[in-house]
Amino acid sequence: MINVAVLTLSDKGSKGQRQDKSGPLISEMLKGVGEVKYYDILPDERDLIKNKLLEYADKVDLILTTGGTGLSPRDVTPDVTLEIIDREIPGIAETMRMEGLKKTRRSMLSRAVAGVKGQCLIINLPGSPTAVKENLEVILDVIAHAIEKIKGDPTECARQ
Ligand SMILES: Nc1ncnc2c1ncn2[C@@H]1O[C@H](COP(=O)(O)OP(=O)(O)OP(=O)(O)O)[C@@H](O)[C@H]1O
Ligand SMILES: Nc1nc2c(c(=O)[nH]1)N[C@H]1C(S)=C(S)[C@@H](COP(=O)(O)O)O[C@H]1N2
């Protein structure tokens, strides 16, 4: 089973001013795919996010973040993610934005990124529960294979 950490980035959520629905939704959607071992809510603060991502990356196979991917001045999740990853996986974020366009034109406003830190896959999701559902459902089936490859699975990946 894949070990997962979920990190919600929200100023309001971290102050208890809004119930976090997106973090629990991620956990729900991951049933059968992975087990959520860690979950936290942080404000949109670079250093706090960076330290938490680095801590989780040593402990789990997959980190899913939600929130802070947009254009508000305090949205920094993709910027911090890019700072710490070793390699980017553009196709994951491209797929989320492309499939999202079928639901809302605002899909193009998410700056979400995905990448690898050590042996951990990190994927940013936007903040609203609707966006989490629509983004995660279009990449969910590829996550297990991506993690196998990150961990060095030598089997050939091509379809026969
Ligand atoms: N973690 C969450 N749980 C529930 N609803 C959320 C969450 N994050 C965002 N939303 C919903 O999506 C809308 C847009 O998200 P956005 O990230 O812009 O919110 P925000 O209010 O700017 O976040 P912040 O808490 O960082 O100020 C919010 O107004 C809220 O309705
Ligand atoms: N599929 C999908 N993608 C989506 C959305 C959505 O509702 N559905 N919301 C968009 C909106 S309105 C914004 S502003 C950006 C960034 O969201 P965030 O700042 O909450 O991370 O994600 C976008 N991506």
Automatic annotation (TrEMBL):
Gene Ontology BP terms: Mo-molybdopterin cofactor biosynthetic process
Record bears the keyword Acetylation: no
Family matches, as InterPro entries: MoaB/Mog-like_dom_sf, MoaB/Mog_dom, MoCF_biosynth_CS, MPT_Adenylyltrnsfr/MoaC-Rel
Domain MoaB/Mog: 5-146
MF annotations from Gene Ontology: molybdopterin adenylyltransferase activity
Catalytic activity, EC: 2.7.7.75
Entry keywords, A to Z: Molybdenum cofactor biosynthesis
Keyword tRNA processing included in the entry's annotation: no
Pathway: Cofactor biosynthesis; molybdopterin biosynthesis
Reaction catalysis annotation: molybdopterin + ATP + H(+) = adenylyl-molybdopterin + diphosphate
Protein task: Catalyzes the adenylation of molybdopterin as part of the biosynthesis of the molybdenum-cofactor.
PANTHER family with a match to the protein in the record: MOLYBDENUM COFACTOR BIOSYNTHESIS, MOLYBDOPTERIN MOLYBDOTRANSFERASE
Protein name from the UniProt record: Molybdopterin adenylyltransferase
Species in which this protein is naturally found: Dissulfurispira thermophila
